Automatic annotation (TrEMBL), chain A:
<dbReference type="Pfam" id="PF13442">
    <property type="entry name" value="Cytochrome_CBB3"/>
</dbReference>
<keyword id="KW-0349">Heme</keyword>
<keyword id="KW-0813">Transport</keyword>
<keyword id="KW-0472">Membrane</keyword>
<dbReference type="InterPro" id="IPR050597">
    <property type="entry name" value="Cytochrome_c_Oxidase_Subunit"/>
</dbReference>
<feature type="domain" description="Cytochrome c">
    <location>
        <begin position="48"/>
        <end position="134"/>
    </location>
</feature>
<feature type="transmembrane region" description="Helical">
    <location>
        <begin position="248"/>
        <end position="266"/>
    </location>
</feature>
<dbReference type="Pfam" id="PF00034">
    <property type="entry name" value="Cytochrom_C"/>
</dbReference>
<comment type="subunit">
    <text>The cytochrome bc1 complex is composed of a cytochrome b (QcrB), the Rieske iron-sulfur protein (QcrA) and a diheme cytochrome c (QcrC) subunit.</text>
</comment>
UniProtKB/TrEMBL annotation, chain B:
<protein>
    <recommendedName>
        <fullName>Cytochrome bc1 complex cytochrome b subunit</fullName>
        <ecNumber>7.1.1.8</ecNumber>
    </recommendedName>
</protein>
<feature type="transmembrane region" description="Helical">
    <location>
        <begin position="148"/>
        <end position="168"/>
    </location>
</feature>
<keyword id="KW-0472">Membrane</keyword>
<feature type="transmembrane region" description="Helical">
    <location>
        <begin position="343"/>
        <end position="364"/>
    </location>
</feature>
<keyword id="KW-0812">Transmembrane</keyword>
<dbReference type="InterPro" id="IPR005797">
    <property type="entry name" value="Cyt_b/b6_N"/>
</dbReference>
<dbReference type="InterPro" id="IPR016174">
    <property type="entry name" value="Di-haem_cyt_TM"/>
</dbReference>
<feature type="transmembrane region" description="Helical">
    <location>
        <begin position="214"/>
        <end position="238"/>
    </location>
</feature>
<feature type="transmembrane region" description="Helical">
    <location>
        <begin position="384"/>
        <end position="403"/>
    </location>
</feature>
């Protein structure tokens, strides 16, 4: 300390102090900047994105969701063609458009999955436009989707507690009331699974970060990808539908083969 | 014993002969082999389902014994450390962990588990099909009524064995199933809660149920099944096997192959065929992936939770039952006790009706027909139209409930509304059996008419011939005697009206019997009489004349009962 205090009046001291201050400030800014970037990597949209998105929206979505996405006027029977999209966030758009559910194929209890209608760039522009209308869940970052950091066992527990009652313990999907259904989760990207949890598309409830933490969501995605990749250890999974498909195979396959053999064995009947 | 003394002077020439003689002179085995070895069994594919059931049971015993070496029926809590990654570190019962170990860490364990489960499904299925065969062919009639009852007991035991086994792995699916059983037990008025507490050793799920079910599953139930099988087969030997009617087959003989050597070889080979089919299923198709369902925890439930197929009809009935109709609730509170008819009715009533009818049917039919003779010749189902109709009604009723157990999968896979599936099945629950009865009975009668046509006129050959005077006729080929026999030789009972008793009075019960007899036999197609046959064949060279003559004969026969 003595050496430092002796040189406090050195002509270069002020410059050194200035450099130090700049270095610390710059360093802090750089750290804060990368943190922000990680979270907001895909959520920063340019004004051009928003503008392009609005054009796409007016041309493709406004018929049901209304100009400015305020939702359609209720029709003859009080049904609304499309809800307001203010505040649904970019994640909702990325899920609905990215999985091909929107634009909707036809009116019905639930939007069906179909081939995507917009490419990634257009989806991003649409998301940018809807995100600009009001604050909502953003598209998840790479960090929360990194399944190498997830725990499949924990994810399995969360999945069985929160998801299996609709999606089936093996994620094979299940029925809901009046033609609605929880889809099978095979082949769904981690991004879309995450977005579905935070936005609650169709008849799904929202699982916000207070219900299931982002780490928990990552664990669930890890679990789903693990069971999908491992296949079925016991042979053909029969749709993972449980005892119904097993019973069906036994009656139509197993018993039929055995009846074939009984006929063969008693062919030369007396 | 004469069997042992008579062989004392016999000196065998070969070493095999000496061993055989040694055993025989001490056990008298040759008498038994002679008796059993000469037993005749008739050949027909539909007679083999009982065998399939027996063989699946043997497979169950073998594979089940293997599983007991590794299964630990403890509900103590543990953390999984085995090789299945998505469950590592998860808290679970020892029973579930040991089932996972059987599946992933015991060599051949998963295959044996799957063999056991597929064999269980096949066991109950073959028992059911065997019973349907016995019912539709009338093989339950005297002297086999008691054996029919033993068969019914075997069916119930098979369900019990299946359900206790289904509940052992302590996975989410089995726990959900047990919870439903617990709910049904608790719905029984007054005693339900006590029975449930007794069964589970306290509040559901407790820590005792897997151990208790295990003892039932590996000891009591299989022992009772074995006992019943022994009785069943003993009675089969005493009664001798039934046979389909045919030339040379009478009520007093059995036409077929002897056990030794033909039938023993066939049956022995068939065992390996059944084992092979089960092994192929087990090797290629996954069954009950307990690792998918996770350990049991009372809070979660999985979509698509169903029981194995044989319990499905009860589950389906529960799904069909409405909780309220309009403003009428099916749940009442009486003096502080809840009476849950919405659970009690569907869980117990359809199964109760099915099994009561099943067990009492031989006596019902005996009472209605007043037929107390011994029957060793079977009915072709078409020749007993009302029995066939009632059987089909029962099958359809069962199938409606069965389908209801998979209502959610019907909804998702056919893209229809789950609610609509339930509504339609509710309608079919009541209408299905009625429509089934009428249609099956009419089909049976129509087939009888067709048989009659063929017996009288022969088969249509499709060959058109032009007669010298210009008329076109189709040539009918008369049947040979062998095939004709089957079409003309069957019993066709007639209506037996209510009979007055010794005092000349007709009791209410007798009136009911008379009415039922009319329901059974009012519509009938009379079998071809020898006279008709002769008349038809005499005119064989003049088909045109034959046609009209036979038609009038048929008409009078059909209408004039």
């Amino acid at each position: 300390m003595k050496a430092l205090s002796q040189r406090r009046r050195h002509p270069l001291a002020a410059i050194a102090l200035l450099l130090l201050g700049l270095l610390v400030t710059g360093g802090l800014y750089a750290v804060a900047g990368t943190v922000n970037e990680a979270k907001a990597q895909t959520t920063t949209y340019s004004a051009q994105d928003v503008e392009q998105g609005e054009k796409l929206f007016v041309a493709n979505c406004a018929t049901c969701h209304g100009i400015n996405a305020v939702g359609a006027e209720p029709g003859a029977h009080g049904f609304q063609a499309g809800p307001s999209l203010i505040g649904v966030g970019a994640a909702a758009v990325d899920f609905q458009v990215g999985t091909g559910r929107m634009p909707m194929q036809m009116s019905g209890p639930q939007a069906q999955v179909k081939p995507k209608q917009f490419d990634e760039e257009q989806t991003r522009q649409l998301a940018a436009y809807v995100a600009s209308l009001g604050a909502g869940p953003a598209v998840p970052s790479e960090e929360v989707l990194d399944t190498t950091k997830g725990n499949a066992a924990k994810g399995g527990e969360l999945f069985r507690t929160n998801c299996a009652m609709c999606h089936n313990a093996a994620a094979a999907g299940g029925a809901l009331t009046r033609g609605k259904f929880a889809p099978a989760l095979g082949g769904v990207t981690g991004e879309h699974i995450y977005e579905a949890m935070v936005t609650g598309p169709q008849n799904m409830p929202v699982f916000n970060d207070a219900n299931i933490s982002p780490e928990g969501k990552r664990d669930i995605i890890t679990f789903l990808h693990t069971i999908e990749e491992q296949g079925s250890p016991g042979g053909a999974a029969l749709g993972s539908l449980g005892p119904v498909s097993e019973g069906l195979l036994l009656w139509t396959g197993g018993l039929a083969v055995i009846i074939g053999f009984t006929i063969w064995l008693t062919q030369r009947s007396s | 014993m004469s069997a042992t003394s008579s062989t004392e002077n016999y000196v065998p020439k070969t070493s095999v002969g000496r061993i055989a003689n040694f055993v025989d002179s001490r056990t008298g085995g040759s008498a038994m082999v002679k008796e059993l070895g000469r037993k005749i069994f008739p050949d027909h594919w539909s007679f083999m389902f009982g065998e399939v059931a027996l063989y699946s049971f043997v497979i169950l015993l073998l594979s089940g014994t293997f599983l007991t070496f590794f299964f630990n029926p403890s509900m103590a809590e543990t953390h999984y450390t085995g090789s299945y990654v998505p469950l590592q570190g998860v808290e679970m019962s020892v029973a579930y962990a040991s089932t996972l170990d059987i599946s992933f860490d015991v060599r051949g364990g998963l295959f044996m588990r799957q063999v056991h489960h597929w064999a269980a499904l096949l066991f109950v299925a073959s028992v059911s099909v065997h019973m349907l065969r016995v019912f539709f062919t009338g093989a339950f009639r005297r002297p086999r009524e008691l054996n029919w009852v033993v068969g019914g007991v075997l069916l119930i035991l098979a369900l019990a064995a299946g359900f206790t086994g289904y509940s052992l792995p302590d996975d989410l699916l089995s726990g959900n199933g047990l919870r439903i059983i617990d709910g049904v037990i608790k719905a029984i008025p007054l005693v339900g809660t006590y029975i449930s507490m007794l069964l589970f050793g306290g509040e559901f799920p407790g820590t005792a149920i897997v151990g208790r079910l295990y003892v039932l599953h590996i000891l009591l139930v299989p022992a009772m099944i074995l006992l019943m099988i022994a009785i069943h087969l003993f009675m089969l030997i005493v009664h001798k096997h039934t046979q389909y009617p045919g030339p040379g087959r009478t009520e007093n003989n059995v036409v077929g192959y002897p056990v030794g050597p033909v039938y023993a070889a066939k049956a022995g080979g068939f065992f390996f065929i059944v084992f092979g089919v089960v092994a192929l299923l087990a090797a290629n198709f996954q069954i009950l992936p307990i690792w998918d369902y996770g350990p049991y925890d009372p809070s979660p439930i999985s979509a698509g939770t169903q029981p194995d197929w044989y319990i499905g009809f009860v589950d389906g009935a529960l799904r069909l039952m409405p909780g309220v109709i309009g403003n009428f609730p099916f749940e009442f509170v009486i003096l502080g006790h809840t009476l849950s008819l919405n659970v009690l009715l569907p869980a117990l009533v359809p199964a109760g009706i099915l099994f009561t009818l099943l067990f009492t049917w031989p006596w019902i039919e005996r009472w209605v027909t007043r037929d107390d003779r011994e029957h060793h010749l079977l009915d072709r189902p078409r020749n007993a139209p009302t029995r066939t109709g009632i059987g089909v009604a029962g099958v359809i009723w069962y199938c409606v409930m069965w389908a209801a157990a998979s209502s959610d999968l019907i909804a998702t896979h056919f893209h229809v509304s789950l609610n609509d599936v339930t509504y339609w099945l509710r309608v079919l629950f009541f209408l299905g059996p009625i429509v089934g009865y009428i249609v099956a009975k009419r089909i049976a009668l129509a087939l009888q008419r067709k048989d009659r046509e063929i017996a009288l006129h022969g088969r249509e050959t499709g060959r058109i011939v032009r007669l010298p005077h210009g008329e076109f006729i189709e040539v009918h080929e008369p049947l040979d005697d062998y095939h004709q026999f089957r079409l003309v030789n069957f019993e066709s009972p007639e209506v037996l009206p209510a009979q007055p008793d010794a005092n000349g009075r007709i009791s209410g019960k007798e009136k009911l019997r008379g009415r039922l007899s009319r329901l059974f036999f009012e519509d009938r197609v009379a079998p071809v009489t020898p006279a008709e046959l002769e008349a038809a064949h005499e005119h064989g060279h003049h088909p045109a004349i034959e046609e009209t003559a036979a038609e009038t004969a048929a008409e009078t026969q059909v209408t004039g009962r």
